[in-house]
Amino acid sequence: MTIQSGVGLRIFKDFDRPSPSLIAKFKGIPSSNINDEMNRLFCMRHNIKPLNQRPLVGPAVTVKVPMGDNLLLTNAMDLAKPGDIIVVDGEGCEERALMGEMMLTFFEKRGIAG
Predict the structure, then answer these.
(1) How far apart are CA 110 and CA 81, in angstroms?
(2) In this structure, what are the phi and psi dihedrals at residue 73, rounded to the nearest 5 degrees?
(3) Which alpha helices (DSSP H) does 1-114 contain, by range?
(4) Angle at Cα 81 formed by Cα 57 and Cα 11, nearest 5°?
(5) What is d(CA 31, CA 28) in angstroms, rounded to the nearest whole number?
(6) Residue 87, helix vs strand vs coil
(7) Contact 78, 110 (CB under 8 A)
(8) Where are the beta strands (DSSP E) in 1-114?
(9) In angstroms, how far is CA 77 from the centroid of its own chain?
(10) What is the per-residue pLDDT for 30?
(11) Which residues are within 8 A (CB) of 9 and not within 5 positions of it... i.e. 6 or more apart?
């Protein structure tokens, strides 16, 4: 699922998720090892950190938002499925939070993995 702004507003509400058996094969493998095997094409920057502190493995729901605007993130809250991991591109904005404790609690209650 890709939710992004920019050229208009595009929300892709459905995408093919990998099978649970494929996801399970990645559990316990450090992301740096996976990154090395994929020619370093798909790993995030070192300063991106999860809001929860447990290992993450699952389908990514990607969200691109304008600086300081979390409207599309709130849409992702409703579109994500249990086990999904929401990854947000906030355009590097560090002046405003895109998410807080109430949103994190909502994600946890819905079974969003991270």
Answers:
(1) 8
(2) -65, -40
(3) 20-26, 31-37, 71-79, 101-110
(4) 105
(5) 9
(6) strand
(7) no
(8) 2-4, 10-11, 60-64, 85-89
(9) 11
(10) 84
(11) 72
70's tokens = 């979390």
Residue 49 CA to residue 19 CA, distance in Å, equals 25
* Ranges of the chain with pLDDT below 70: 1-8, 42, 50-52
Token output for 100: 């807080």
- Give the residue among 29, 43, 23, 41 at the shortest CA–CA distance from 113: 23
Evaluate whether 71 touches 11 at the Cβ level (below 8 Å).
no
d(CA 88, CA 4): 10
What gap in Å lies between CA 76 and CA 78, rounded to an integer?
Answer: 5
Burial class (CB in 10 A: 0-12, 13-18, 19+), 97: exposed
Contact between 76 and 100 under an 8 Å Cβ cutoff? The reply is no
Q: How far is Cα 103 from Cα 51, in angstroms, rounded to an integer?
A: 11
Identify which of 111, 32, 33, 106 has the alpha carbon closest to the alpha carbon of residue 75: 106
